[in-house]
Design a protein that fits this description.
Largest sheet: 5 strands, mixed
Strand content: 15-25%
Order of helices and strands: EHHEEEEHEEHH
CATH class of the largest domain: Alpha Beta
CATH superfamily of the largest domain: Transcription elongation factor, GreA/GreB, C-terminal domain
Number of domains: 2
Number of strands: 7
Number of helices: 5
Shape: elongated
CATH architecture of the largest domain: Roll
Helix content: 25-40%
Strand order of the largest sheet: 5-4-3-7-6
Structural class: alpha/beta
């Protein structure tokens, strides 16, 4: 028996997905695109059905707004900072799902090659993932819950402000 993984999403993303679902269900039930029986109308309705199912599945498995534990382990809902071993460059992004976009940062799916490789990693651990360009090594530098990361971005919490106090 396979279990569907729980997915962390923000309250804002949860509300946005509910609005999208309501709109798609209305369009589908109202029969919009039913009047035409051409292939294009059929394709539109099929796309709506698929998207409705995707959103439904996502919302059923969603953990809304509660941050994961602040244990430093890379998992959905965590903002991670990684170093790419090939060039020493770093990147900070959230591990989550693409439907739960955040205005202030990129979101990498836990199912993407990089997200899957990082899942369960602790700071200092090196992982290898396989994007289309070939195997790449990355080291997890830090993983913090989204809520704590957001709080660190406010002016009273910046490192620069604290150094001057």
């Amino acid at each position: 028996m396979t279990s569907t993984p729980r997915v962390w999403i923000s309250s804002h993303a949860h509300e946005r997905l509910h609005r999208e679902l309501a709109t798609l269900q209305f369009l589908f039930s109202a029969g919009i695109a039913d009047e035409d029986t051409d292939e294009n109308a059929s394709a539109v309705r099929r796309a709506w059905e698929i998207r409705i199912q995707q959103i439904h599945d996502l919302l059923i498995n969603a953990v809304v707004g509660d941050d994961p534990p602040d244990d430093g382990i890379a998992e959905p809902g965590m903002v991670v900072t990684v170093r790419f071993d090939a060039n020493g460059g770093t990147d900070t992004f959230m591990l989550g799902i693409h439907d739960a976009q955040f205005a202030d940062m990129a979101v990498y799916s836990i199912r993407s090659p990089l997200g899957a490789a990082l899942a369960g990693a602790r700071p200092g651990q090196r992982r290898t993932y396989h994007p289309p360009s070939g195997a790449t090594a990355v080291t997890l530098l830090k993983a913090v819950p989204y809520g704590l990361h957001s709080a660190d971005l406010t002016p009273q919490h910046t490192g620069a402000a604290q150094r001057h106090i």
